[in-house]
Amino acid sequence: MKRCEWANKGNQAMKEYHDTVWGVAEYNDQRLFRKLILDINQAGLSWQTILNKSDAFEVAYESFNIEKVANFDEKKVTELLENAGIIRNRLKINAAIINAKCVLEIQHEWGSFSNYLWHFVEGKPIVHHFNKSEEIPTRTELSDEITKDLKKRGFKFVGSTIIYAFLQAIGIVNDHLVTCFRYEEVQNKTKNQQRK
């Protein structure tokens, strides 16, 4: 079974993430928020590190309930800074809280965080046709545009490279290699979701 090269460099959890989650179109606000926060926490680290800690993140961040995270207080921040199961970085923790508040504002304005994100591509994923990992960019004009708008709305820790990784993860961009067994599977799954 041919996978994207990066998926074979980690453990079984990395393979499962690649085979079932990465690149699949996501429309659920809570799961979108979860992926955004995990991608922010990955900055400077490997995705394997974040995957290994994902269960601890789930508990620490109250299942990534947007309203709950938006209301985290200083006591909760201290608790998170003492939690060895997650990434203990005050800037990243504070960014999660601020970003949760910003997501709530977007939901009020757009109806959902999903509506907001998907409007940048008019609801249709961008499908690339890369044969090698080296061809895949780390940022694009699209990630630059979304980053600029997110920052204008008050989001923190959202550089264009982080946002591009986020877009790949949530299926707004399909960057599975054309040789990967998931390349067409992801497109077919997205088409089926859009029909519902």
Could you name the key traits of this structure?
196 residues, mainly alpha, Endonuclease III, domain 1, two-stranded parallel ribbon, 11 helices, metal-binding, zinc
Structure, briefly:
This is DNA-3-methyladenine glycosylase I. The protein is mainly alpha-helical. The chain has one domain: Hypothetical protein, domain 2 (Endonuclease III, domain 1).
**Can you list the strand order of the major beta sheet?**
1-2
Spans where pLDDT lies below 50 across 5 or more residues: none
The first-to-last residue Cα distance is 30 Å
Output the number of helix runs.
11
Shape: globular
Classify the beta-strand content into a percent band: under 5%
Please write out the topology.
Layout: H1 12-20, H2 29-42, H3 47-52, H4 54-60, H5 66-70, H6 74-81, H7 90-110, H8 113-119, E1 126-127, H9 141-152, H10 160-169, E2 173-174, H11 182-195
Parallel strand pairs: 1-2
InterPro entries: Adenine_glyco, DNA-3mA_glycosylase, DNA_glycosylase
Binding site for Zn(2+): 4, 18, 176, 180
GO molecular function, one term: metal ion binding
